[in-house]
Design goal:
CATH superfamily of the largest domain: HAD superfamily/HAD-like
CATH class of the largest domain: Alpha Beta
Bound molecules: magnesium ion
CATH topology of the largest domain: Rossmann fold
CATH architecture of the largest domain: 3-Layer(aba) Sandwich
Strand order of the largest sheet: 4-3-2-1-9-10-11
Low-confidence stretches: 1-5
Strand content: 15-25%
Structural class: alpha/beta
Distance between the termini: 39 Å
Helix content: 25-40%
Number of strands: 11
Order of helices and strands: HEHEHEEHEEHEEHEHEEH
Mean pLDDT: 92
Radius of gyration: 18 Å
Length: 258
């Protein structure tokens, strides 16, 4: 399978209209899959403060109502947050915890529960060394957030977490903007997209995301798919937009209001 060449940082952003043209040219039905934080919702100082960009929910619902579009939200957030913090309806294909939570998946077994307890305690000990750091509890993971710390503390605490879990084969690490997440069940956005593709059988996939965890999905896209990276930084995606508002604009061009 041909892969698009990796793009460096600072190559500039694409015009929303060009991305819309590329997506409209894809074979149908289209699986349109999108990340949330940094893609549909501006990054907030605290994760619980994040909300969808203006117009995002309306246009998601319009896209989902199309006969030739399957709309999926693929996020590192828990399914509960997707439903209740962001108000995303369960009628969409909602995938939480990087794919570990699909269709209200199986609860943790005893081994996973014990492992998650140990991970949570270890990350809490690291967080306690840096004012402003905190540990978020997720159904299948614990996440060390360092957005509220000094830059030095952020670097030091993430390095400490890496030293502890980077080579631990029992766990699955997701690194993002100012967050180090340790999951006890294997899942990536690539495996989530592959599962959606297998279940829904689309003609092509368009995937939008902003973070390192989204790169696992971008590199697996085929020549008939479209990847859109939001923000700066290296990416395997073919296209690039600047902000969640631009993402909403692309979606509005794909599904104009009546
Ligand atoms: Mg994101």
């Amino acid at each position: 399978m041909n892969k698009p060449a990796e793009r460096g940082a600072g190559e500039g952003f694409d015009e929303p209209a060009d991305i819309v043209e590329a997506i409209l040219a894809l074979p149908r039905p289209l699986l349109l899959a999108t990340d949330v934080d940094g893609t549909l919702a501006p990054i907030a100082a605290r994760p619980e403060q994040a909300r969808l960009a203006p117009g995002a929910l309306d246009v998601l619902l319009r896209l989902a109502a199309r006969d030739d579009v399957e709309l999926a939200v693929v996020s590192g957030r828990s399914l509960d947050e997707l439903l209740h913090q962001f108000g995303l309806p369960p009628s969409l294909h909602l995938v939480g915890s990087h794919g570990a939570e699909m269709e209200h998946g199986a609860p943790l077994d005893d081994n996973e529960t014990a492992l998650l307890g140990g991970v949570t305690d270890a990350l809490a000990e690291i967080a306690a060394t840096a004012p402003g750091a905190r540990v978020e509890h997720k159904p299948l993971a614990a996440a060390l957030h360092v957005r509220g710390t000094t830059p030095d503390d952020a670097t030091r605490t993430i390095a400490a977490a890496r030293a502890m879990f980077g080579a631990d084969s029992r766990v699955h690490v997701h690194e993002g903007h100012q967050v180090y997440e340790v999951a006890v069940r294997p899942a990536t956005k690539a495996t989530a997209l592959a599962a959606l593709r297998a279940r829904l059988g689309p003609g092509a996939v368009a995937f939008l995301g902003d973070d390192r965890s989204d790169e696992t999905a971008f590199v697996e896209l085929g020549v008939d798919d479209v990847g859109v990276k939001v923000g700066s930084g290296p990416t395997a995606a073919r296209y690039r937009l600047a902000t969640p508002s631009d993402v909403v604009q692309v979606m509005q061009l794909l599904a104009p209001p009546d």
